[in-house]
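EI: anyone free to look at a 386-residue chain?
SC: sure, send it
EI:
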Amino acid sequence: MSNIINKLPINYEGRPIYNIIYSNDFEGLKDFYDTYNPDGSKKLCIVSDSRVASIYLDEIIRVSREHFSKIISFVFPEGEPSKNLDTVRELYVKLIEEHFDRKDVLLALGGGVTGDMCGYAAATYLRGIDFIQVPTSLLADVDSSIGGKTGVDFDSYKNMVGAFHMPKLVYINLSTIKTLSKRQFYSGMGEVVKSALIKNNELFTELINMTPVADSQPSDDSCIYGYSSDNLYKIIYECNRIKKMVVEDDPHETKGERALLNFGHTLGHAIEKYMNFELLHGECVSIGCILAAIISRNKGLITQEAVNTIASYILKEYSLPRLKISDADIDRIIYITHSDKKAVGSYIKFILLDSIGNAIIRTDVSDDDMKDALTEYLREYNTSAN
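SC: here you go
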């Protein structure tokens, strides 16, 4: 019997289009399959990276076996370097050779790289087929699996090729968090704190008060890197609720509201690319959040006390890697921001804070503003990192 905890419906134009299901195992997928594919006629392709496949692929095949006419898998090397059109091309070839048609379905089993790439393949293969998100990382649980944004990197430029394509289901098995390394876990927490900073001051305060046990390990079901299972569920659910609210209001990022989810990402993405993806996405977002807070203060929007609160919490809890960059590197990072997909003409749509828990869109952030923030980060905050 499945151990389904809760579900959160996601709507489009006022009508439900898919659910986020929360569980402690994969058994609940069977209930979805019974409704989604009652006659078992569809074929299923499970898309996963090499590490995640080694842990969960057999289990997903087991719970899916009786519900599809055929199950195949496509496994690619783990890591951001695989998130490109070459890997998508290989997936297309696999689907064509296995005679997948429009009624068939893909299942993204993994973190953000897998979900983004599988979703993009689903959006574009035969002009669009169904897909299911089964995230296995905290980052994917709280952010990338929700909302229908799909994409791949192009010549190391982050998510430059993509499409909006909503999944049929997001199935979050909370127990998968236990298989994450501490670094991957903290990377996911970078997107958690981003969500709190843009929309929920109460959640940010709760995060500060949830100070985890130092150096704890995911040793049992009750505690994962110092966070109780109940607190982790609460964190994930609240982040999903925030993203639900933003996505439902602006599903295709035409009104501007959805752009708020990019807080910390403009300079974060530039640092990620400049470092040749040696840093994890969530690590770069965490750094980007501190940088955006500094710029917000310099624009007179928030106080130094607010910057201190944000920076001290992130640096204390998330073990950020030390940035080894020079003044020349700063100029290159700023240059990269102008190739970001958030650039509109000659300006960048930059997300700032006018208070903790309330983000705003600004188009007056200059190169000098970014340079000042990077310089201050390296001088004041980089020494506290690993």
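EI: The longest strand covers residues 4-12.
SC: 👍
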